[in-house]
């Protein structure tokens, strides 16, 4: 163990070099640890978001197929098939939507003061929904049920409606009252019972982004009930869009496989896509700082490895004569390599130890500041989004409807940094490995020579 | 304890007439083998400790090859103090490097106690049987004088007959004229002469069979140099070590038992006339 003593003496005697190496190792280990910590913290925050939002898969028109020349006709799938998919073990709840124009009877009137009505005189949107509680607007909190109850699959073939608070007030309606509607063919009529009254937080004059009507005039009804107003549904209800709430995010792949097996060619023209818009909106800033932190970590890691390799190489060159002297005394080459490696390991251990004390607090502070800025910028962008004017798709104005913000899905603006022993072990092992390799390789190269060649530098 | 050998007055064993010279090795070495005792071992009996057989050494510099040593045969005996003389570039240091196991010859063989160094292992030979005092001292500059000596003892496994390694190291340093205060100083805070003495104490501490020294008294004043020569003589004559010194100093050569001269890669021997 003579080399252990020599390593200690060498480090102590060469304090300047030892401190420079320690400082370099410390900076590198703090930076790399910071990257690892931010990565871990953002991953945990993202996981929390996924847990809270839940995993949602939408069955909707495959825009990729459309581009490939599948035609402009929106695909339809039989509601029975969707029900089968809804019964798959991965599915917690599901719903689907069908919509058509519904015309109010003379006795009722639409809420005035809104945008120009694209549905014609007395016309509005009748949206058939299997389970209104699964509507994204209810889940996000933009809609609130004030009285009555949600429409569920049990109401499928009943004629029931959810109406907006302003529409109810305008027509003096409450839960249990009846309302008469005519279908798009302007012939088929049916009476519906008000099952519930909800509140939409949007102002009356703000047109609905998809249908262009005032939000106050939107009617949600049971799918079978509203379907009975349309002659198109005589051969069974045809669905253009469905939403499946899964047991968990991890079930998504299994669900997609099972759904394709179950529905087969009926899914042609459709895509099963995870509705991760809310998650993406909430985790956008996390992804951004994670990307920055990961890039910085790799950059610092590689630059650090290069600096350490250089320092270790210089140390080996500085100790070349010492090698020659010790070899001349018959010291084993393995002991010399062990001494050099031990010097690096001792410095690295102290640096990584100090780094593990400093990195969490520094990362929390720096990461939080970085995330705060990113979150504020994301919020600002979301707040600045304006829907296109009534009757416009937004294309002319350069507005992408896909950019519409999801309500109540604020970007995450907090992370909690925690250093795990496995993170520390990973960084420590990599740091020590780099240090030892950077030392052992040049040392081994020098030690291939005989002592005389080392002492005379080959002259 | 002082190892001063000034009063030993021992006459080296030799079968040759004092003052006569002979050449050894190589086809061009007229009259070889000339020095009976060490060259062929006949006079040295089993006292031969190191034997060079047909040793040649060539340095390659690009396409040019320079032969420094040419087919040298020589046997070094225990209990003998040798001085190697020769002009600059004659190959003295190369001879010392090969004999001390710091390098391997281009051709020929070197054996210690009848065992080829290639078989024994150069590292093991340097560790157990040979120590070198370098012209440039080659001390470990991050250590004190004392640590330099104890480190050498630890590496070679040298153990004092009594007391600790530290005690023995202090004793050896004192013997070469360095007191306790100097012993505890970093070697870079010692003068060139003092560093040379540390290097000598370090080599002595290894307690080996053969001691090699390259210009060991070059940086020392006359009195100290004489003290060192006395130590070498004592090591050879009282402790039976083989001491081989490369030197330009006539003071050293005059007090050695045999004087070897290297000229154009060939070795000639002169038994000291004392």
Automatic annotation (TrEMBL), chain A:
Its main location: membrane. It is a multi-pass membrane protein. GO terms for cellular component: plasma membrane. Pfam families: FtsX. Residues 296-451 form the ABC3 transporter permease C-terminal domain. GO terms for molecular function: transmembrane transporter activity. Keywords: Cell membrane, Membrane, Transmembrane, Transmembrane helix. It comes from the Bacteria. Residues 379-407 are annotated as: Disordered. InterPro entries: ABC3_permease_C, Macrolide_Exporter_MacB. The chain crosses the membrane at residues 295-316, 337-362, 424-447. It is found in: Cell membrane. This is ABC transporter permease. It comes from Streptomyces tardus.
Automatic annotation (TrEMBL), chain B:
PROSITE patterns: ABC_TRANSPORTER_1, ABC_TRANSPORTER_2. Residues 1-48 are annotated as: Disordered. Residues 50-274 form the ABC transporter domain. The keyword GTP-binding does not apply. The keyword Mitochondrion does not apply. One of its GO terms (molecular function) is transmembrane transporter activity. Residues 8-21, 30-41 have a biased composition (Low complexity). Gene3D superfamilies: P-loop containing nucleotide triphosphate hydrolases (3.40.50.300). CDD domains: ABC_MJ0796_LolCDE_FtsE. It comes from the Bacteria. Keywords: ATP-binding, Nucleotide-binding, Transport. It holds the Pfam family ABC_tran. InterPro entries: AAA+_ATPase, ABC_transporter-like_ATP-bd, ABC_transporter-like_CS, ABC_transpr_LolD-like, MacB-like_ATP-bd, P-loop_NTPase. GO terms for cellular component: plasma membrane. Belongs to the ABC transporter superfamily. Homodimer. Forms a membrane-associated complex with FtsX. Part of the ABC transporter FtsEX involved in cellular division. Has ATPase activity. This is ABC transporter ATP-binding protein. It comes from Streptomyces tardus.
């Amino acid at each position: 163990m003579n080399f252990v003593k020599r390593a200690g003496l060498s480090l102590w005697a060469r304090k300047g070099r030892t401190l420079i190496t320690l400082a370099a190792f410390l900076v590198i280990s703090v930076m790399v640890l910071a990257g690892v910590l931010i990565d871990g913290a953002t991953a945990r925050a993202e996981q929390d978001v996924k847990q809270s939002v839940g995993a949602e898969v939408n069955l909707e028109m495959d825009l990729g197929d459309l581009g490939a020349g599948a035609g402009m006709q929106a695909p339809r799938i039989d509601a029975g098939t969707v029900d089968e998919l809804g019964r798959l073990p991965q599915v917690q709840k599901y719903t689907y939507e069908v919509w058509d124009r519904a015309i109010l009877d003379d006795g009722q009137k639409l809420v005035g003061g809104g945008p120009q009505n694209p549905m014609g005189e007395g016309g509005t949107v009748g949206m058939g929904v299997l389970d209104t509680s699964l509507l994204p607007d209810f889940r996000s909190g933009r809609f609130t049920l004030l009285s009555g109850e949600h429409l569920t699959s049990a109401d499928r073939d009943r004629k029931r409606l959810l109406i907006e608070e302003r529409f109810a007030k305008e027509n003096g309606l409450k839960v249990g009252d009846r309302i008469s509607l005519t279908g798009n063919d302007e012939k088929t009529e049916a009476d519906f019972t008000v099952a519930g009254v909800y509140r939409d937080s949007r102002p009356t004059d703000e047109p609905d982004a998809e249908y262009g009507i005032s939000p106050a005039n939107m009617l949600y009804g049971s799918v079978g009930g509203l379907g009975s107003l349309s002659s198109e549904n005589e051969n069974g209800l045809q669905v253009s869009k469905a939403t499946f709430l899964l047991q968990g995010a991890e079930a998504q792949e299994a669900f997609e496989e099972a759904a394709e097996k179950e529905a087969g060619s009926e899914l042609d023209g459709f895509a099963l896509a995870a509705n991760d818009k809310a998650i993406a909106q909430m985790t956008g800033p996390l992804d951004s700082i994670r990307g920055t932190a990961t890039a910085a970590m790799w950059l610092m890691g590689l630059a650090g490895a290069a600096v350490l390799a250089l320092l270790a190489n210089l140390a080996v060159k500085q100790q070349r004569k010492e090698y020659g002297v010790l070899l001349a005394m018959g010291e084993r080459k393995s002991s010399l390599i062990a001494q050099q490696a031990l010097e690096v390991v001792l410095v690295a251990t102290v640096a990584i130890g100090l780094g593990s004390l400093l990195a969490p607090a520094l990362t929390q502070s720096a990461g939080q500041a970085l995330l705060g800025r990113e979150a504020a910028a994301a919020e600002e962008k979301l707040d600045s989004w304006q829907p296109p004017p009534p009757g416009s798709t937004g294309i002319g104005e350069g507005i992408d409807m896909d950019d519409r913000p999801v309500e109540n899905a604020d970007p995450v603006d907090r992370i909690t940094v925690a250093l795990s022993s496995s993170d520390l072990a990973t960084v420590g092992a990599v740091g020590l490995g780099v240090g030892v390799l950077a030392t052992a390789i040049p040392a081994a190269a020098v030690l291939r020579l005989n002592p005389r060649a080392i002492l005379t530098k080959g002259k | 304890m002082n190892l001063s050998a000034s009063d030993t007055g021992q006459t080296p064993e030799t079968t040759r007439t004092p003052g006569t010279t002979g050449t050894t090795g190589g086809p061009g070495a007229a009259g070889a083998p000339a020095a009976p005792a060490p060259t062929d071992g006949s006079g040295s009996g089993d006292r031969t400790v190191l034997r060079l057989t047909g040793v040649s050494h060539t340095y390659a510099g690009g396409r040019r090859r320079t032969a420094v040593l040419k087919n040298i045969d020589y046997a070094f005996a225990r209990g003998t103090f040798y001085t190697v003389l020769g002009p600059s570039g004659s190959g003295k240091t190369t001879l010392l490097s090969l004999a001390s196991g710091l390098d391997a010859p281009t051709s020929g063989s070197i054996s210690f106690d009848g065992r080829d160094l290639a078989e024994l292992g150069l590292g093991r030979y340097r560790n157990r049987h040979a120590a070198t005092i370098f012209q440039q001292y080659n001390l470990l500059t991050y250590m004190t004088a004392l640590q330099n000596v104890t480190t050498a003892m630890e590496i070679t496994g040298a153990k004092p007959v009594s007391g600790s390694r530290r005690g023995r190291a202090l004793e050896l340093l004192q013997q070469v004229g360095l007191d306790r205060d100097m012993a505890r100083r970093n070697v870079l805070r010692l003068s060139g002469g003092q560093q040379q003495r540390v290097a000598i104490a370090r080599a002595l501490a290894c307690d080996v069979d053969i001691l090699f020294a390259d210009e060991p008294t070059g940086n020392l004043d006359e009195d100290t140099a004489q003290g060192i020569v006395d130590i070498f003589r004592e090591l050879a004559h009282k402790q039976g070590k083989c001491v081989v010194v490369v030197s330009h100093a006539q003071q050293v050569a005059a007090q050695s038992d045999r004087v070897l001269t290297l000229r154009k890669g060939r070795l000639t021997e002169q038994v000291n006339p004392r």
